[in-house]
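Job type: complex structure
Entries:
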Amino acid sequence: MSIVDVCALEDIPRLGARRVRRRDGVQIAVFRTADDCVFALLDRCPHKGGPLSQGIVFGDKVACPLHNWTIELGSGRAAAPDEGCVQRFAVRVEAGRVLLAA
Amino acid sequence: MNRAPFESIARRPRLVMVGNGMAGVRTIEHLLELAPDLYDITVFGAEPHPNYNRVLLSPVLAGEQTLADIVLNDAGWYADNGITLYLGRKVVRIDRVSRVVEAEDGTRAAYDRLVLATGSNPVMLPVPGATLEGVLAYRDIHDTERMIAAAAAGTHAVVIGGGLLGLEAANGLRARGMEVTVVHLMPWLMERQLDRTAAELLMRALEARGLAFRLEAQTESILGDKRVRAVRLKSGEELPAELVVMAVGIRPNTALAESAGLHCHRGIVVNDTLQTFDPRIYAVGECVNHRGVAYGLVAPLFEMAKVCANHLAEAGIARYSGSFVSTKLKVTGIDVFSVGEFAGGAGTDEIVLSDPGAGVYRKLVLRDDRLVGGVLYGDTADGAWYLKLLRDGARVAEMRDRLMFGETNVGDTGHLGKSNVAAMANDMEVCGCNGVCKGKIVSAVKDKGLFTLDEVRKHTKASSSCGSCTGLVEQILINVLGSDYAAAPKRKALCGCTDRTHQEVRDAIRDHHLVSAAAAREFLEWRTPDGCATCRPALNYYLLSTWPREARDDPQSRFINERSHANIQKDGTYSVVPRMWGGETSAAELRRIADVVDKYRIPTVKVTGGQRIDLLGVKKEDLRGVWRDLDMPSGHAYAKALRTVKTCVGSEWCRFGTQDSTQMGKDLERALWRMYAPHKVKLAVSGCPRNCAEAGIKDVGVIGVESGWELYVAGNGGIKTEVAQFLVKVKTAAAVLEHAGAFLQLYREEGWYLERTVHFVHRVGMEYVRKRVLEDAAGRGALWERLQFALEGEPDPWREPARAGVDERQFEALAL
């Protein structure tokens, strides 16, 4: 695992996300909240595999675009009463750049 | 002393609740949702049990469930939420001056705010022998356990009182093998809920199960030495009994409140914010008298809980204005439902359907074209619908002829046309979208303690997608919960971020000229800083439709389809539907489509119901290339907007055609495309009454006749087939455009987000639509002009993505 500079913070829309493609495996979704916190999750909803990067981001949650499951960005867990969780990736912002551990 | 000097100032206010029943705990639950850290909370319960589902005592008595099954909040719940819980401690004193409550055992708790939820007590008839062993009320777990024990030991039981509770008790004891006689003072059973005919059908059904009845019978005394032996009636008859259950009514438990000097009159008197005469003290539940009414069913108590929590959380905008209660007997296999002024009388009309041989009876009572009450026996499938009509005060003039047959008699799809849940097997599918069967809903309601449709949707997903099985799911809820089913409130908040309704939000945006979502959320006191996935798209639409060219679109508040201008599919790819005006295309367009399919290796090409071509399986990074190479306008198949205008061939080719429907369709589509709306909008134009374009099930359907055009509105061909209603006949194509446009603009300005035209027109009434679109010619012109103003210069997002505000970064993935 290495730490990669994937983009500038400004390249991710506020209350939005970008997809990060990996050489193999499912892509990673990098989210930006209203207050510029950044989170990274596997881009696959634990329910039916929907791409979370395409969902509506609100607070520190994202609503899956397929069936509206709510996933907490910090924990990767589905909000009750749904059950499930999605893999998290370490990500941080340094000097305006988004650094992802993947 | 190591105490911080400011501790006493910094401490949180203390909330104490007396009573640990369903109404009180529901209040705390709502409060924790709204303001989790506002109070230090202490709860006193007189019973030694945690909060349990009193609604399900009858199934426990009948042996269908156990106590453990019906616990709603176990001790862990109180601990997790930091609530101090005192069980088995009855509060006997409130000191309102020093603001302290004290329990029997001396436990004290100081309060800043106090909630009284002391419930009610059963009425015990003061007849001789009423205190003998074996004479019980039927109120709580303790009573239920004693009844179960008595049923095991004895053979004869007498239930005094032929009301709802008495009959459920009698049925439960019979199920446990006892010989049960019900003694009732009145000439028929459940006289407060049923008319004579329905009550007689009910009694016959209960007699068939082995229950015996004595009507117009008064209990003179209860006989026995230490234990009860028999019940003697005024008539002189003696009924043997080892168990006597008194179920003659309940009385609000006001002893504590009265001792504290709070105003009580048949309950603790509260105002519309559930405050007693001491503003620091609130009261909720069965102990309350609100506007002269004391309620004994769960649904109204939950409505009170919600309002009380809102005020405790200092939100201060909710009011309780009373509840409509309906009654449903919880006796497995017997369906009785009653609501409102079922008895009829002067000034009312009654519609009656009676087929005693088949065990079916139905009476609806109307006054001034509104439903005011009803009784259903045998088939209670439509109870929830009648309750809704009654509570909404809906005018039923236009459906009087069909009212008797219920809501579900036409058009529902997805569940084999079944409408009677009582007859459904547990493994039968109810929700065809999410594959949920009846048994799963029943067990979720029982095991998880669910009361509302929303809760069932969250836990089981049933009726959470297309919604066509909503009525069925409500019926299952009613069947399990009986009268304690909490119908969806008439006033429904837009989402969990606010208590405001769609209408209130729309009004505020217009009346206060709010042009940004942030301003609207601040003005309307949203609880969340940036809303949620439900309210954000709604707010965005309301702003844009109310203040066109002034409010700015927020792409991050749109669902992915409207953000990427394509339809997301289950595998994360997209579908692309180019616009073909009026469903007409050309060789050049078809060639370009074919080339695009080859170039981008698009796996599926499909002809749609709206006469378009759908390209399925397009990768997101290819979308812009596909749009460019197609060189056709966006079909908006992804948007809450004008989708398609479907047409028949019309007079240009068809030997039956009377009008040029294809041209009319093209004109309509060119005038209306790019029109966003509360939900998708579909039009059709047919050139003659044979109606090959299926205009009768469209939001706006136009049918050409020799002398002009007929306009129909608010049809729907989806979940529930709804035939469009006739609006007007006009002579010219220009008039078609103006009338159709005015109707759609009215819908755009006044519809609620995600409300189709059919539901909009149901809500506001066809009369209102006629008034605005037909009778007021100047108003019609103004509506049509406002629509044109909103659409003028709107860019095509496929051809001019930058001008349309499309965030093009989304189409490119980042690389590691």
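Summary: Strands of chain A lie at 3-8, 16-21, 28-32, 38-42, 56-58, 61-63, 70-72, 88-89, 91-94, 97-101. Chain A has a mean pLDDT of 95.
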